[in-house]
Design brief:
14 strands, alpha/beta, single chain, six-stranded parallel beta sheet
């Protein structure tokens, strides 16, 4: 194995958001540079007998007691790693001292938003931190089509038959962090105001306990991983996406929805404000009621995140519904801005510049 060949360590063949983004990074880097993908568990054995240059994605969890690498092993082997680029996120506005100490073992770090960058710097990270946001592939901007997935096709027919206002909400895990209770409160607001809604919850195979908050509402659940084209069809069926997250470093569903011109309700504090197309803020941003821990007891992300004001969320949602043609038109106009700033084809140049600086100089 050539010692010059950079290695990208990540959780291979696992259904994680980290894996999804890592595979995009690898694909984009390989357009221009040789990169060797490897599973995280291979790092300790490789670095014991050769000098290497590596990406580690994610960076923090693998160093924890239950992680694939562990902090003590990395410290022992660090002298054999010529370049160590850690890739991770900030799910709150502050990192723990343990996370900061380990961050400073890296050559540099890559994060996915200015929100994450600020959290790292303000927490005491001293090594260079670079921002490379998540992106959307070119096919994301295709024309709408008739859905192919039976459930999504049925949902579209149901919408047309009953003139439903479709509200989409992603509940994959971490009901508190994802604001499940805030989403439920917003749906109650729609019921109280006699909106002819249907809440569509997209979940994975694991059921979060917070799902029980929605049992009294009109709910349509879609479960499991969807291929890209089916996921696009799901967004196209929706009229509004709810993004009431108390924490998170990016929240990809918000970008995906806006990339299809779907109005997305979100707190006015957090990384999602970075990908809101200009002119939509007054419709989509909900006032922050307070800052709260999104992940209580977490050993990495020990700071705060924004909790939206439930009354303002209700008012904003009703305003969107009552002025839907206007808001939807502005959201559709914002697709061009999303494509210019958050397509992978644009973002890859940021990755290339970082790679050239650390791996080819």
């Amino acid at each position: 194995m050539s010692k010059e060949l950079p290695i990208y360590f990540y959780p291979m063949k696992r259904e994680l958001s980290f894996s999804y983004i890592a595979e995009w990074h690898i694909k984009l880097l390989q357009e221009k540079y040789p990169i060797l993908p490897m599973h995280l568990t291979a790092l300790p054995s490789l670095s014991s007998y050769t000098r290497i240059k590596v990406y580690v994605h994610p960076y923090f969890y693998p160093l924890s007691t239950n992680g694939e690498i562990k902090e003590a092993i990395l410290k022992k082997l660090r002298k054999n790693i010529d370049v160590l680029i850690g890739i991770d996120v900030a799910d709150s506005n502050h990192l723990s001292q343990w996370a900061v100490d380990n961050a400073n073992l890296a050559t540099a770090l890559i994060v996915n938003s200015k929100w994450s960058y600020d959290a790292y710097i303000e927490s005491g990270v001293k090594v260079p931190v670079h921002v490379v946001p998540h992106g959307l592939e070119g096919e994301w901007f295709r024309e709408p089509r008739t859905p192919q997935h039976p459930s999504i096709k049925f949902l579209q027919e149901l919408k047309k038959k009953h003139n439903l206002f479709i509200v989409l909400y992603f509940l994959w895990h971490s009901g508190w962090r994802k604001g499940a209770d805030l989403a439920a409160s917003l749906i109650k607001c729609l019921e109280d105001n006699h909106v002819n809604y249907l809440l569509v919850i997209k979940k994975m195979d694991i059921t979060d306990p917070a799902l029980k908050l929605f049992t009294k509402f009109k709910v349509f659940i879609i479960e499991g991983k969807l291929p890209r084209d089916w996921l696009i069809d799901l967004y196209d069926t929706a009229d509004l996406l709810l993004l009431p997250s108390r924490g998170g470093s990016f929240e990809l569903p918000g970008l995906e929805a806006l990339g299809r011109g779907i109005p997305t309700l979100m707190p006015n504090t957090g990384p999602w404000t970075e990908y809101t197309p200009p002119g939509l803020e007054k419709y989509l941003w909900v006032k922050t009621a307070r800052m709260v821990p999104p992940l209580p007891g977490n050993t990495i992300h020990d700071g705060l995140g924004a909790e939206w004001d439930a009354n303002d969320a209700c008012d904003k949602a009703l305003n969107i519904i009552n002025n839907y043609k206007e808001v939807r038109t502005k959201a559709q106009e914002g697709i061009k801005w999303i494509k210019e700033h958050f397509s992978w084809n644009t973002i890859k140049h940021d990755l290339w510049r970082i790679h050239e600086h650390y791996f080819t100089s």
